[in-house]
Amino acid sequence: MNTNKHHLCYLCGQTIEPKLRNDPMALSMDHVPPRQFYPKQIRRTENLNLNIAPSHKRCNEAYKNDEEYFYHSLYPIIAKNNPQLGNLVAQDIQRRSLKQQTPAIIQRILSTKSTVTKGGIHLPNGLSQFALDGKRIERVAAKIARGILFLSTERYFEEQQIIRIDFYDDLNNFLKTYKPALQLNPLAGVYSRAFAHSHFSYKDFRLLLMFFWGAFIFQVIAKDTK
Ligand SMILES: [Zn+2]
């Protein structure tokens, strides 16, 4: 990537001016999806060339807590649908729980139980069910989708352009429905066992399928302005 040219922040759409490194408005290359979504053991053994997008330090830091929340609160679904990778993620969660702010997040998640999240996400049957804050989860899914759209179109997509987010953990059903589309445009990624996506353009819309940890899928629909 050319570091001399002026970057556009993929999160706020404003130009990133040259600033000192610690300035909140300084350039910060943000991982799409977040780096910690790739388990540490995999990052250590594989030489992953993760996708990055330009942002203001302040803009991407505003998502940090929600990203941590996403990762911890959806872990039970990884453990259920993909136990092998779930083990690696669990190791990371354990390691991260030694950090200060994390136990509070886990406490909060574990202390509330329900079947449907506030944002309307239905959790799989038979899984320990917690009152997930769907709004926070959707905010992270939308951020990742906007990052993918930015990187593939080189255009800014604002949050309001994300018009729909659906969550699927019934993979067989999902993959059956999308089979013809996915044959044309397969799910792919830098390390697709942790994250893969597929991207379709249809009239004024873009459809993104984002497959996390081989365990669940977010379908995101964005309105295109082009
Ligand atoms: Zn920004």
Structure, explained:
With 226 residues, the protein is an alpha+beta fold. It has one domain (7-223). The chain is 37% helix and 22% strand. It is built from nine helices and nine strands. The chain has helices at 40-45, 57-61, 64-73, 75-81, 83-96, 102-110, 134-153, 171-177, 179-184, and strands at residues 7-8, 15-16, 27-31, 52-56, 162-168, 188-191, 195-202, 205-212, 216-223. The strands form three sheets. Strands 5-9-8-7-6 form a five-stranded antiparallel β-sheet. A hairpin with a 3-residue loop joins strand 8 (205-212) and strand 9 (216-223). Helix 3 (64-73) packs across helix 6, helix 3 packs across helix 7 and helix 4 packs antiparallel against helix 5 (83-96). The longest helix is centred in the middle third of the chain and has 20 residues, at 134-153. It is globular, with a radius of gyration of 18 Å. Bound molecules: zinc ion (ZN). Zinc ion is lined by residues 9, 11-12, 14, 55-56, 59. The site of zinc ion has 7 residues, from strand 4.
* Cα Rg: 18 Å
Question: What's the overall average pLDDT, rounded?
Answer: 85
The sequence of SSEs as H and E is EEEHEHHHHHHEHHEEEE
Q: What fraction of the residues are assigned to beta strands by DSSP? A: 15-25%
Structural class by SSE content:
alpha+beta
Report the bound ligands by name, code or SMILES.
zinc ion
Low confidence ranges: 124-129
Largest sheet: 5 strands, antiparallel
The number of distinct helices, counting runs of at least 4 residues, comes to: 9
- Quick one: overall form? globular
End-to-end C-alpha gap: 24 Å
Question: Helical percent range?
Answer: 25-40%
Number of strands: 9
